[in-house]
Design brief:
Elements lengths: L2 H18 L2 H11 L7 H51 L1
């Protein structure tokens, strides 16, 4: 799998996690868009935590799906090498 296709997959997964966890960025935009007030300080921390969790979840899902696709390719390569060895041994 190429780096670009992995990055494209990550962007799709990241977009989906942000759709599901949209409240995090909404809290951040509200906090920075409002007048300075101590009563909305919780919005900053909640928004930061939720948005960071969204990013980490997207990275974990991308990593898991990329690893899942690599395993069969390794198995196929091992089978191809085994077939090649068998052919070389039979040719002798």
């Amino acid at each position: 799998m190429s780096g670009f296709s992995t990055f494209k997959r990550y962007l799709v997964i990241q977009a989906m996690t942000l759709v599901c966890g949209i409240v995090g960025p909404i809290f951040l935009f509200t906090y920075f868009g409002a007048q300075p007030d101590t009563t909305i300080r919780w919005m900053y921390w909640a928004g930061l935590f939720i948005t960071a969790a969204d990013v980490l979840i997207a990275l974990a899902i991308t990593s898991a799906t990329t690893k899942a696709e690599r395993a069969p390719l390794d198995a196929k390569a091992a089978q191809a090498v085994e077939k090649l060895r068998n052919r070389m041994n039979n040719a002798e």
